[in-house]
Design a protein that fits this description.
The protein has two helices and no strands. The protein has 71 residues and is mostly helical.
Length: 71
């Protein structure tokens, strides 16, 4: 688990789950364009839009793990 946000190449700290939802996919695209190979994301609360965000983050992380096993 990361200790300090300043240790990251890119960091977003957002005030609420709505802001998180609006920024998440743009942040993924930004990281992809910059060649970032690892993303650390804090999971939002598991209710409302947070449940959908958690699902998307978890599916992305599982897809990445599956790709790494195939290499």
């Amino acid at each position: 688990t990361p200790q300090q946000p300043e240790s990251f190449a890119r960091c977003r700290v957002l005030p609420d789950v709505g802001s998180y939802a609006r920024a998440l996919f743009a942040f993924f695209r930004e990281c992809d364009a910059a060649g970032v190979t690892s993303i650390w994301a804090e999971l939002p609360p598991p209710d409302g839009i947070g449940a959908a965000l958690r699902d998307r983050i978890e599916r992305a992380s599982h897809a990445e793990m599956h790709q790494n096993r195939e290499r």
